[in-house]
Amino acid sequence: MVSFRSSCVFYFAMLWSSTFLARPAFSQVEDDPGLSQKKDDLVEDDPGLSQKRDDLTPLPDQDPLDVLGKEDMTTLRSSWGLTVNDQCLYEFVYQFQHNPILPVGEDSFQGGCDFGNLDVPRDPIVAPDGLLYLEPRRFYERFPDYVWATMGFNHIGVDWLPCGRMPSGYKTAQYDLSFFRVTPEFRAETMTCKLKESDSMTIVPGQEFCDTEQEDPKGMNFFVVPAAIVNREPVVNMPKEFTHRHLTDGPLPHIGLRSLNPDVIPDKPSDWNDVPVFMSSYAGKLVMWQAHIPYTMIKGGKRQFHSNADRYFETTIPTIPDTWSVKYNEQDGTVQFTIVGKAEMCRGDYERAQKIAGGPPVFPTYEEGSAGSGGKDGDKSGSSSTRTFRNTSSTTILQMAMVLFALTQ
After folding, report:
1. Which end of the chain is less enclosed by CB atoms within 10 A, N or C?
2. Quick one: 394 exposed, middle or buried, by C-beta within 10 A (0-12, 13-18, 19+)?
């Protein structure tokens, strides 16, 4: 893994690059034995899938991937772009807009988010979009194979949580941006478990957690933790400060066993002013890198920029992001989330793989009003959007801010 300060030095070189970010085409490349990051290294086929639980087994006419949400990013008017520089560093930018049809709940599980407690339970409240306030709104999008080979991430999941989640100061409306190293099929069909009964402890309705007692191997794999041979306390490929949680806010079906830094958890939602990262493992392997963005950072009439960085313990996966940021543009409500890390392929190989996939990428152009439809595609004819990352000065400012932040660490 490139050291954090080294990656910052490399970042200055990126400021002089004339390469513009653009949204890669969705066409897939053929499997290339020359690509060093292979899907077979990350996912094993599971033809059995013999042990299913009633609460996770889809109905005969239901798509098994429905448990992951909608494979549709048009609701958020989203685009993404990936570039790799001569120092073999990648920069991935995901841009989206909060859709007004998505409900916003009150902090600390009050108001529409109130579900009472074990002594005085209350029926969850239905939001204007027809779902419970407490239920997450989930979306995901697959990456082309060459992007998977470059960053090590197969797809991105975007969850909108109107009420937030446990623990403590994260109980406020937020976006979870999750980058997965395994396929949606693997998550939906293999990463399953016996759920914790909601009457055994206080669990937020709409949130599912794995029971600590598992009989099926798939459920047991949630509790196989990556660890170094010498020191088994820190989690391999995660920051040293991270700890894994085996109770209600740790093992999640289709997500894995989550780990986080307990020292940065805010006491209450009003204290939350950073962009924390959670990570998860399954069967002893890292499967997810997840950033949390509170709604307070991406709303209102003031432009905002927030960034963060981390180093990782006993790194065996060089492509984990070491720097990330979120920028909110108050003029049009767009949000740009950026991650930077060491690429598995350097610039030449990356551009050749991209060319095989269909050539230079373009952004979709969303028609006005399409975001509120909740499912209608905008105009994806291939013309460049006027509100994309092609604004060089804006991108340069973003890069400069990330470098200045990094140098202060």
Report:
1. C
2. middle
Q: Are 272 and 213 in contact (CB under 8 A)?
A: no
What CA–CA distance (Å, rounded) separates 249 from 209? Answer: 7
Whether the Cβ atoms of residue 115 and residue 205 lie closer than 8 Å to each other: yes
- The kind and range of the H/E element at 180 are strand 174-180
Are the C-beta atoms of residues 140 and 154 closer than 8 Å to each other? Answer: no
pLDDT at 207: 79
Question: Across-strand partners of 140?
Answer: 157
Q: What per-residue confidence (pLDDT) applies to 362?
A: 66
What are the start-end ranges of the E strands in 98-173? 137-142, 155-161
Please, which residues have CB within 8 angstroms of residue 121's CB and are 6 or more apart in sequence? 115
pLDDT digits 0-9 by tens, 65-113: 999 999 988 899 999 999 999 999 999 999 999 999 999 999 999 999 9
Cα 384 to Cα 272: distance, rounded to the nearest angstrom: 36
Q: What local confidence, expressed as pLDDT, does residue 247 receive?
A: 61
Give dist(CA 252, CA 271) in Å, integer.
Answer: 26
Low pLDDT (below 70) residues in the chain: 1-61, 198-203, 227-234, 246-249, 359-363, 367-409
Paired tokens of 407: 């140098």
Q: What gap in Å lies between CA 117 and CA 204, rounded to an integer? A: 9
By the 8 A CB rule, do 216 and 51 touch? yes
CA 109 to chain centre: 23
State CA 356 to chain mean position distance.
27
Q: What are phi and psi of 262, to 5 degrees?
A: -70, -20
The pLDDT of residue 202 is 52
Q: How far is CA 211 from CA 189, 222, 245, 247, in A?
A: 18, 10, 12, 8
Judge whether 385 and 371 are in contact, CB under 8 Å: no
How many angstroms separate the CA atoms of 248 and 245, rounded? Answer: 8
**pTM value > 0.90:** no
Enter the DSSP assignment of 70: B
**pLDDT confidence of residue 17:** 41
